Amino acid sequence: DSDVGKIINIAVIPGDGIGREVTPQTQAVMGKAVGDQVRLNYVDYDLGAERYLRDGTLLNDEDLESIGQQDAILLGAVGDPRVRSGILERGLLLKLRFSFDQAVNLRPTKLYPGVSSPLKNPGQIDFAVVREGTEGLYSGMGGYIRRGTDQAIATETSLNTAFGVERAVRYAFDLARKRGGKRNVTMVNKTNVLPHAGALWLDIMDKVAQDYPDVTWDYLHADACTIFLVTDPSRFDVIVTDNLFGDVLTDEAGAVVGGIGYSASANINVTDEHPSMFEPIHGSAPDIAGKGIANPTASILSGAMLLEHFGYDQAAERIQRAVEEDVAANASRSRSTQEVAQDIIARL
Amino acid sequence: DSDVGKIINIAVIPGDGIGREVTPQTQAVMGKAVGDQVRLNYVDYDLGAERYLRDGTLLNDEDLESIGQQDAILLGAVGDPRVRSGILERGLLLKLRFSFDQAVNLRPTKLYPGVSSPLKNPGQIDFAVVREGTEGLYSGMGGYIRRGTDQAIATETSLNTAFGVERAVRYAFDLARKRGGKRNVTMVNKTNVLPHAGALWLDIMDKVAQDYPDVTWDYLHADACTIFLVTDPSRFDVIVTDNLFGDVLTDEAGAVVGGIGYSASANINVTDEHPSMFEPIHGSAPDIAGKGIANPTASILSGAMLLEHFGYDQAAERIQRAVEEDVAANASRSRSTQEVAQDIIARL
Ligand SMILES: CC(C)[C@H](C(=O)O)[C@@H](O)C(=O)O
Ligand SMILES: CC(C)[C@H](C(=O)O)[C@@H](O)C(=O)O
Fold it and tell me: B179: how many CB neighbours lie within 10 A of its CB?
């Protein structure tokens, strides 16, 4: 096999809570799926709440430098009740996305047979959200003056550049073509209220669409999109949107397909200059952490996205198929984290 | 009856599409509900797409001045496929909300018995969203430079002031007390990503909560909130949030309670210095406009909110009850706009 001898160096950041429980299972599944096609070389990073509480480190230059030398990042989850909200998110998770210029946050949304949707008539749900990952309201730009007085004022600024938007939009059109389904891209924004950012996004859609005569596109306001996600989610093929709308819509979408326990994601550096990062959408779930009962499926599917990113499409598909079979057979049973992983491995 | 001789001057702006069909029905229902308790004096304003296409007027100083002299505004809907998206929204609807300093956009969300929710297990849904109405990302602040070049950049700025946030938050706590239910206010934001605005909102919550020892409060990230709206909407009592999150969440909430055809709203000027405005959440629905089949229920419920605003609680409750009975009896039948209104009037 011509791939023997190949290697992918993967920075592993289990992070906090159930992230530490699901990530090792994902590594086991990935290993089994690739066999000896490629060596997965894992480099562990002790980052997250424990490290922060121990020595105050979130993500220092040394860590960044070292992680930046790996080919990819496998992340579990960040967040811990002992650390004030925002510290780990901004200092670790968002810092990784921004430092490694992860332009596209790709979030496939699929209702697997056997999984119970909270919707009465979910239909066939299978779409992907391409969320811009490096700008918008996530830039951190803003200020808060006169704090504690009646004249206090705080601002947040959404930054939208042709550079940032175009690479996300191109990715979305490419993806619609590659998926070979409806071949449609739906841009979601709120152009009637956000005239400047809305116009830039529409300009880029117009421009990029010319290079994809085989892909159609339409536009939806974000509020209308939240409705369709509940009333007609099967209408979507590829959604492209900004960082904040993407955050909100993908959680709603995750709920609609039976819970974010099945929602994987990839934070993609589109030039491969820096590592891309693969992580489940769910958080660290402190309420169930340490019990060994977290569902590792979203993390395992994120592992499949990692393999697909490096061209190991067959290994990725094997994991996908094993997960689908496993879910169809077992979604209603309660199993331990390890049992789920073992059941999936057994089907590979 | 001591109220005889009283009068409410109401600026009526039917606007576009189905707004023009539902608004007259609401006026009929309101008239019947108040009887001779109070005179409803309607002043019609020809505003919306037709006017704009005819003479280019959206909302001029003269209109504003005149509407400002009325006690309240009853609005149908704005939006027309012949007018570029954003023109009517910003030039008319948002201009009214901002000019009349309508600080609170109140959106009750209730699943009426007989109405079919898209959720399998909706539970008892009955909460209200208090959406800040005059700032946030709706300020219009921002810019778009280098348009058409690879260096294009567009910004939007979210403005959050202690003044604006505090009046919305106080309204929310008052409402939780008045509703007398769970007595809980849930603040929704994205404090882990929006550090400046998030901190200001949290500061104001902390401060205001001290005046309401009988009301509890909690905090939810907007993405988590979109999940709970689908998986556990009955958990909410009063939600308070900013202008953009409020926009998105109330549409999702409307979908969850069976469609925004049942969702009323009030844009409240909390000092009564300017008129408050009452409008259904739904839009002008160009696809069904002119057919006489639009459901007037959301508009009629907005009329009830208007009456309640002026202290005519019993008339408002009569409409509420008539709507509930009507919906329970007829929600699954298809009726004309006029039939629905007649059926409701018959129950008053
Ligand atoms: C944890 C948080 C900063 C993050 C985000 O807002 O992007 C999360 O919600 C997500 O969607 O990955
Ligand atoms: C029409 C639009 C400007 C408006 C808004 O965004 O506020 C609408 O969606 C609403 O929720 O009332």
Answer: 16
Active site residue B52: no
DSSP track, B72-118: EEEEEE---TTS-TTHHIIIIIIHHHHHTT--EEEEEEE--TTPPPS
Same domain, A225 and A141: yes
Q: Which residues of A121-135 are buried (b: 16+ CB within 10 A; e: fewer)?
A: ebeebbbbbbbbbbb
Which of B159, B190, B255 is the closest to A153 by Cβ? B159
* Span A99-144, pLDDT tens digits: 999 999 999 999 999 999 999 999 999 999 999 999 999 999 999 9
**Could you read off the pLDDT of A230-240 as tens digits, one per residue?**
999 999 999 99
CATH number reported for the structural domain that contains residue B163 in this entry:
3.40.718.10
Enumerate residues 6+ apart whose C-beta is below 8 A from B125. Answer: B109, B110, B111, B117, B233, B234, B256, B257
Place of tokens 């205001």: B208
A123 to chain B: which residues are within 8 Å by CB?
Answer: none
Per-residue pLDDT averaged across A183-206, rounded?
Answer: 98
Of the candidates A137, A153, A200, the beta carbon closest to that of B194 is on A137
Q: Residue B219 belongs to what domain range?
A: 117-257
Q: Predicted confidence band at A4 (pLDDT cuts at 50, 70, 90)?
A: low
